[in-house]
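Example protein as discussed:

>
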Amino acid sequence: MIPRKVLIYGTSSSGLLVFDEPEFSEVPIQVPGGTVDPDEDIFEAARREFHEETGLHFKSGFDHLGTTSYSFVRDGQLHTHERAYFHLKLPNDLPESWHHYEREPSGGGKPILFRFFWLDLRLARSRLGLGMEEFLHRIPA
């Protein structure tokens, strides 16, 4: 069974919400998201993952932009998963940056520190890692 993932493009007048991992500088800039649990609805997974990763809780407003397959090579093996992309319009009064711990990493292990900040949408195409820029063009203007 192909693993399913959700990715959330959170935007405000400040730009696109992204994060890095201060304790792991080699990890590229990402958008919030994660693994869909077995039999979990992708909208519920998007809400859950966004909350777990950012500390922010929104029950609605997740607009499904589309779904695609993403393949990559890790440790010499080809991996593929399905990615469902969402857009979430965020309030303009959020902080310029903040830290939050992902308490339940999908791979297990200790909590991971994330540093959230805003990135200009025009820069996001070249700055996001891991193919996460694929559906940026579908964010409504």
Q: What stands out?
A: The first strand starts at residue 4 and ends at 12.
